[in-house]
């Protein structure tokens, strides 16, 4: 019987190959085809986001990339084998949240949601099956299965571009990893949707992918301020005192995260307040509110036998437990409703601003096994791949229904998650690899924070703090350490200065996130996406022959410790023990962020910034809108002053985004873009202008002053 079946499916494959691939253009520059019979339960169906169609109008026109019709697939043994051709000199990026390399060509990855285990094997918090190529296109496989990816590894005997056999005895160019002409993907199901996403640049393909997933998330303004996660067993009084200490010491604070001890039992979780530590959550939250500090709650979704919802949700949970808690089957509307009602009643109704949803990623020995079953019939494997999407989607829906934006943390995500207001984090705590993860997050429609926990020296504390300030979430996670920003007195003035810089830069960060939402441009991203950045790992290899397979070797030379933050900033973090570092500047004039002095053009510079500075460079003509130092983000309707900085010698322009900063009014057009321009007057002096707020739209801008950072 089995044999007959496979003959039958082979027949079908042959038919589809004869007829050619039918590509359906579903958005400008986004084409989809079905390989085999795709499963209905997939990443995009779980994420449930509608494409942000309007955003595609600002992208250049593009045509179906030529290679698309050469994609091949076959169904073998109930699985789908997909083969996507590669050119010899193509570089590949993406495949989710990798921590150790930016270039992915040559890798073999098992895309599997998991807590990161210290090696880029594909098991990671967001193993997004989307990649982009230096040839300017992207490919997305919309499947909720564990995919095996051979990203340019494995050579076929019938390839027109097959590697040449060599004699290992005498030929020094013999390689154990011969060249491969394809990305091969194994989908353990009888089909999958394949998306080919056009450019013309890799950045354009990323933008289209994010827009396909609903556009990037737009956090509330307060989400871009500073956040502290307090020690696990803090009680209400201690948390209030901590907020007061921030104020007294002059450190900004927009939200505090409570770690497991706010719950009566964890883990598994009751989702209920602990009555000894938090006897009156309503007045606790209102006290915090008076201090302009919001509350975010840690939880995991595994329900404790002591929770009041245990009996009700029991029939809608999976066969296996996690730490003896039952596992809601979020693929059923009933489990979602019980969970949502609980969060609504216990948390949202009393003013909780968001969640940190932990432990939905792995490890295998913690989570449900692959033999677990769920009432919805969704396989354990699919549940594992999509649980992070489910918790983001359901909580996002709750806040959306209240017309309140949220910004929280989650430890697992996947393809389709770009529009969810969540930042990924983990326990791995390698400062260097955290920066590489930040770079890679931009290829995959996810956000990442290189959180600060504790440090062994003031130097490490300051270095980590400096880089978290240039990331999507500026956070100290003191759940175990109890650290505060001022924990290392030797550097606490510097820490305060950087925490304030984060607040001062809020108009810039907010506009860059608006671009993420409306245009799909990731706010934090790799140098490789920056025009004029020509450093290529392959070029650095002196004797690289593309007839062999130099890709795995090339990653040893790649740039994975500097990145772009928004339209104009290049950030080059310093790590413990370093007094100097190399920074590769793309073509064009670049200037020092702090002084406005010329730094270089298309060259590698060696910098010795001192402990008090994280090197940051700014493009010629850049405009960075800043505001005055402040302890909390402006509230809806609150005016704030602008100090608009200009760098370099060229004219500049910037589009400043403004809305109420808290609601979803922007989805109905309640926002404005203000045009900022700097031009040179006849007398040679630079002068700036900003367009008026659109009539009837939010206008939070108070006084405007100008600072021309570069002396002529
Ligand atoms: C870990 C999480 C930490 C912290 C801790 C609390 O799983 O990664 O950030 O929340 O749990 O128990």
Structure description:
The protein is α+β, with helices and mostly antiparallel strands and 712 residues long. 22% of the residues lie in helices and 24% in strands. The strands form 8 sheets. It has a 7-stranded parallel sheet. It is globular. 51% of the residues are buried. Residues 1-18 have low confidence and may be disordered. The chain binds beta-D-galactopyranose. Beta-D-galactopyranose (GAL) is lined by residues 259-260, 298, 358-359, 427, 477, 479.
Write the layout of secondary structure elements.
Layout: H1 2-19, E1 24-27, E2 30-36, H2 43-47, E3 72-76, E4 79-85, E5 92-94, E6 108-113, E7 123-124, E8 130-133, E9 137-142, E10 147-151, E11 182-187, E12 191-197, H3 202-212, E13 226-229, H4 236-249, E14 255-258, H5 281-290, E15 294-299, H6 310-313, E16 317-322, E17 325-328, H7 333-346, E18 354-357, H8 380-401, E19 408-410, E20 422-424, H9 431-441, H10 458-469, E21 474-477, H11 492-504, H12 506-519, E22 524-526, H13 537-540, H14 551-554, E23 563-565, E24 569-571, E25 581-584, E26 589-592, E27 598-601, E28 604-607, E29 616-619, E30 623-626, E31 640-646, E32 652-658, E33 672-680, E34 686-690, E35 701-708
Helix pairs in contact: 3-12, 4-5, 10-11
Bound molecules: beta-D-galactopyranose (GAL).
Beta-D-galactopyranose is lined by residues 259-260, 298, 358-359, 427, 477, 479.
